[in-house]
């Protein structure tokens, strides 16, 4: 069993899955660990531990801009992109778009909490399937309506639809001494369950977080701790009419 030291991360990408996003995910993990160290007083304000998708978008955008400044990426990020849904013809949004002259990657984010002691990953799988359905329901032509024909053809040939689930891994504070082992076991169960996906794990120093039954408790009286994150990213084929 591997031992995970505080504030470390790893990326597992079988068959080089989503290699173009490796630098982005590496930077996201670096930011999470930096935030955890720099703002230890209020980690919930700067980490995506609320199990809400809205906490992920600014993190991804900042990581994308950081890569640009360090000349490590060839795409420009866009958030909250308006698009048309195929099913009802209504307006929808895509969380993140990464664009270059020849490539487009569209990312739909979901966030869930899951106990490190729970090997049942059904909640994670459900969130991933919802993200897939939302991506496939977007009329991609409406995103490219003002693009030259060459650009449209390039993006059709060089594109990615990426559902992403951020799993906030938790444990009870009376088990935190075993958090390295528990986190490693949780990562292993996720890798087994989503063997064809990119799996990104980031382990940081445990901190107390809120959950539904203790909203009025003082911080030191809470029982639930966040011990790390696991990101699951899957590559699915874009559909055009």
SSE diagram, text form:
Blueprint (H helix, E strand, L loop, with lengths): L7 E5 L9 H17 L18 H13 L6 E10 L5 E9 L4 E12 L6 H15 L1 E2 L9 H9 L1 E14 L6 H15 L4 E11 L15 E10 L8
Report on the structure:
This protein has helices at residues 22-38, 57-69, 122-136, 149-157, 179-193; strands at 8-12, 76-85, 91-99, 104-115, 138-139, 159-172, 198-208, 224-233. With 241 residues, the chain is an alpha+beta fold. It has an eight-stranded mixed beta sheet with strand order 1-7-8-6-4-3-2-5, with helices on both faces. The protein is elongated. The model has no long low-confidence stretch (mean pLDDT 84).
Task: Give the overall form.
Answer: elongated
Number of strands: 8
Rg over CA atoms, rounded to whole Å, is 18 Å
Q: From the helix content, strand content and strand pairing, which structural class follows? A: alpha+beta
Q: Mean of residue pLDDT?
A: 84
β-sheet strand percentage: 25-35%
Helix content: 25-40%
The total of helices stands at 5
Q: For the largest beta sheet, what order do the strands appear in spatially?
A: 1-7-8-6-4-3-2-5
Low-pLDDT stretches: none
Order of helices and strands: EHHEEEHEHEHEE
Ends distance? 48 Å
Which sheet architecture does the biggest sheet show?
A: 8 strands, mixed
